[in-house]
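Me: I hope this is not a bother. Any chance you could explain this protein sequence and its structure tokens? It all follows right here:
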Amino acid sequence: MFKYLSGILGLDVGIDLGSANIVVYVKEKGIVLSEPSTVAVRKLPRGGGLEVIAVGREAKAMAGKTPAGVEAIWPLQDGVIANFDMTEELIRYCLRRAKGGGSFMAHPRVVISVPAEVTEVERKAVVDATLGAGASEAYVVDEPISAALGVGLPIDKPRGCMIIDVGGGTSEVSVISLGGIVVTSSLRTAGKVMDNAIVAMLRQRYALLIGETTAEEVKNTIGSALPLSPELEMAVKGRDLSDGLPKVDTVSSVEVREALDPIFLGIEDMVKVALEKTPPELAKDIVDQGIVLSGGVALMRGFAERLSRAINTPVIVAEKPLYSVALGVGKILDNLGAMRRVLMSVERGSR
């Protein structure tokens, strides 16, 4: 009956396809890959197209350091495919790593998570890229469902569960009950926009030009959502915009927090709107059990506490916020009979 995602010898793979990072789960093995969603390419002469020279961590290390004709690309932007061919290359790399060089299954079956509010065209693009990368069958599942499963929320009960996921490309909040999404809201504003805000702040305040990789390091090292005691400082290296020479400036956590504050406010407003749309009985459940925060930005100092203050509701950081979605996809793979209802069969594709 359930031909798809079945078969003793089949390799079942789950993918959290994020704008900043990609995480791969293999059934009965767990998480086997977590790397940046980056592809480095070389332009071939005389219009010969592009040659992929690195993927993942190796490709990200090249960002901002490549010679003429070589470029590091993030093929996913704001949670959706921005470059179809490079997304296909990224997924192909993931499937190759998932198989571990084995040949027992040439074309794995894949479940891949997507933001809940993407369009049908965007969902189909994910399926097509996955099939093009070598999957025999491809399915999509809403990211909030995956994240909620990954953090252990009882989504199949008649009880309201709320999860906030703030990753690299999108911020998403969802209320889930009886296995379905009751309320959802999202912003295409998350970790990468924070990096860009830090780049802009340093450019304006210090005439210091840095790349996104350095901005991410600043964010992770001294970034915070609430005042710190003591506040932190970091020496940031870049290029002086006035004379083009190398330059080092000392930046404080206060300055970084000020740059990120509008983004935090936007996320708070998104959550407030979702709570306003939540049916009263489900809202009561959410107040009783709290809200779970996942995604890479969940690790930022003070972010969960700031959200909790803004909405007057407890906010708990997931145990493994970077892997919540991938672990949820893994639960779907490991319990297909019980979880088949969360797969979107309308987006199902096959070779």
